Amino acid sequence: MDYPKDSQRRKVRVGPSNSYRSHEGLLDVLEDLFPARFSPFDGATDGADAAIILENDPELYRQLAEAPFPAYVVDHSNAAQSFSPQQTRFGGRPSGQPWLHGRTIPWKGSAAVCAVTVAQGDEIIATADEQPVWVTRRNARGNKVILSGPFPAWDAEAPFILQLIRGALPAYLPLLDFLREITAPVDYDPAPNRACFMFDDPNLHSTTWGHLNYRQLIREAQEHDYHAAIATVPIDSWYTNPAAASLFRNHPDRVSLLMHGVKHTHAELHHPARDEDRAHELTLGLRWIERLERRHGVRVSRVMAPPHHACSPKTCELMLQHGYEAACVSWGALVKWNPGHPWPLSFGLGMTEFLGGLPVIPRFNFADHDDARVLLAAFLRQPIVMIGHHGDVAGSLEILAEAASKIRTLPEVQWGDMQTIARGCFLTKRTGNSLWIRLQARLVVAQIPEGVEHLFVDRPWLTEEASEPLVLQQPDSSHFKVAGNRVIGPIPARPGPLTLHCPPAETLSVPLNGSRLLPPVWPLARRLLCEARDRLAPFTARRKSP
Predict the structure, then answer these.
(1) What tens digit of pLDDT does each residue of 104-152 get?
(2) FRET label pair with 205: which of 35, 143, 347, 395, CA 20 to 30 Å apart?
(3) What is the DSSP string of 22-69?
(4) 517 — phi, psi (to 5°)?
């Protein structure tokens, strides 16, 4: 990520020089993720803040023994005895993320690793099948040296985030932690860990949906301290059960609603459509939701969870223009459904990603029991949004309680609805009486601390030449509008809550008369059939049980 003062990037030397060239793709990605600047290591240490040694090089090793800076070293000494581990366990405390202590991450795929050679005085941070794979030692000057095994094969065609998700995380984590630690003084400050569970499909026609009971969900959420959001289909809002609406209206801290498509037809937010037809659908969804809110006093987040995880960049652009605040989709699904899109290797490493100008929040399945995904999201400062369906909680909600207990061990966890999570997607950095805010959404609510007199706002979705307005508003309704390029500032500031809104260059609204608000017959019939199937699931399951 770009730090406001580019000159403060940490200077990291990478050697040997041939290894630097062969890893340039990875290094470019890491420069996007951390405020670091990489250059070849030729043995000179002047002006360097750290070093990374990627191959066995006795001369560079000798120089590191006296180096006046920390270093990261890939240990190839036991490469001939590589093995395929089952899991990595953290017995030590990584400096960049001490909360990893005591956790276990399963290995995926068939990636081979090799044990690191341990010397007297070394601290073993992590083991794979009880073999050391992450070790910390000190050089002659007392500076930290991190040792780990070789990296998996680098895939220059796939975004780095997908390589981490598919199994490479344990192998790259020592390097990522090393860079997080050395860049922390000049990086943006750590953000709170924001979390939410999400269920796709249910509506408010009753206080239950298949195996999901809303009253029980609220009781469990209160007992185990979590929040669950229901991704509901707008076309289903033709009827609302008063008791169901009351549950959501009276417990907004534990349950909430967001949008799940418009009619929930197959891949409806991805399949080809004329802009005016897609605009009509998006407007229709909002109007149905607004009617639900007016009649029953419930609030629905203007965050879209696309049905079947399918969404195109063009649809995201139209959602932005029609007033949607964000989308929530898995990174893998975005890439899978849009193979022709030019995905950069650094895609998915930010707190959010901007597609068609719309912020996209990642999500993943809680039924996968994937602790690595939780830890990866926490490391990347991304919201921890775990999703599932009513069938995933057949019998009990224990899967949510277990996941919540693991998430609570992370630092500063804040549970909330998807609108609150979307509006909390930003990073800050205090420099004297100035506060830098890096927006990861177009509408955020920030708290300006005492002593801050000036703001600098960084909007990473803009190019250096592009210009967009920025609207700032405080609770007393005083607000002002400024226009500028990617970084705007200094802006006068005073302590207290502040809303920052970056409206799109073009906003659209499709007029709909009363008759056009009526749900079309076939999509409505399809939804009723799907609803009947899900509501009958608990009864059919009982009949099948022995």
Answers:
(1) 888 876 667 888 888 888 899 999 888 999 999 888 888 888 889 888 8
(2) 395
(3) HTHHHHHHHHHHSSEEEEE--S--TT-SEEEE-S--HHHHHHHTT-SS
(4) -85, -10
Q: Two tokens at 345?
A: 């290797």
| Spatial separation of the C-alpha atoms in residues 335 and 349, rounded to whole Å | 14
CA–CA gap between residue 467 and residue 469 (Å, rounded): 7
**Cα distance between residue 273 and residue 527, in whole Å:** 21
> If you average pLDDT over residues 195-210, what whole number do you get?
97
Burial of 100 (0-12, 13-18, 19+ CB in 10 A): buried
Neighbours of 164 (CB within 10 A): 23
Residue 127, both tokens:
């083991």
H-only helix segments in 184-274: 214-224, 242-250
Strand 496-501 to 468-473 pairing: antiparallel
How far is residue 508's CA from residue 107's CA, in Å, rounded to a whole number? 47
pLDDT above 60 (res 489): yes
How far, in Å, CA of 11 to CA of 9, rounded?
Answer: 6
Does the pLDDT value for residue 503 go beyond 50? yes
Tell me the C-alpha to C-alpha distance, in Å, between residue 101 and each of 66, 165, 480.
30, 21, 46
